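Side project, low priority. Logging it here so it doesn't get lost.
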Amino acid sequence: MLMNKNAIEGKVIFLTGAGSGIGRATALKLSKLGARLALSDLNIESCRETAKQCAGGPHQVTLLNVSEYKRCIETIKDAIGYFGRIDHVFNCAGINPTARDLVDCSEDYFDKLVAVNLKGVYNVTKATIPYLRSGSAIVNVSSICGIHPHKQMAIYCATKYAIIGFSKSMALELGPKGIRVNVVAPGYIETPTNASVVAGEEALKKTVEQVALGRMGKAGEVADVVAFLMGDESRYMNGSVVEVNGELRSRAKKGRSQHGFTGREQYTKVLLCFSVIVQNIHFVSIWFSVNNNPVLGCGCHNSKEAYQNLEGSLMNRRKVQTAQLIPASQMRKETSTPALPTFSLSLLISISSH
């Protein structure tokens, strides 16, 4: 990923959760690119250690509990007083849960996860908006758990799903002002907060087996994406969710239509899958369902021209049918269908469940 250092050099960036893991790695990355950093964390000593490891400077270090809105306002004002402005924001503060059934989750446990993971993003974003201007960027940290569910992590998943919804809404709200809001969604990354999740050799092995690249990610690899989302190279990205997960095998086996995509994006992926599967068949029958409720179907000839007219066909022909989707890779193995389609399909459609 090429970075224009001049796009970050001299920028003032406010970071939460800077004491360890992805937060620290991002601070180190941005400092190497010449940024001046307002570093905050609930663990002030760890945050100071991050500042020591950062290049350039000066950098500011502040104790911050992101769940306290008044404290967020004070911290932002301190950063403004120290640097004179804030250009970008990185909301990285968060806590990981221990896997447990919902019936074993106390109200205090729920409140803590929501207060830090979700309200913290709200607090810092709201407190910084008055000081941001055209060209500013906000990057929020979600998770693979914010894209598809994980067993015994209902509350954590809820907070990470919510961050994506919050960020996309803020992208619409702030976009007209020239302020971009994007999300990075890390997978299994080697960080202190994930240490308990993959504790033990067997747990690590099972985790790695889920990743197509065959390893856990590095915090620095997420930091590279964050820096990109703050730079000029991503100037037309707004409301985007960038997954950094090495690609999860478990999702591929189940079919992407079940995880990771909603609304128009989901059906675009489905159509792409079918364009690969059925390229050597003369007539295609395509069916869609929403939450297992059949809503719409369409048939068309398997040609570039027919697919270009597919949007009109879909909107005019609504049949109550459904079908099980099979991953393209599986279908290719069973039918010896070539791996690449004969044409490219890029068609966005909206589907009504009425």
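Brief comment: The chain has two domains: 5-253, 256-335.
Revisit when time allows.
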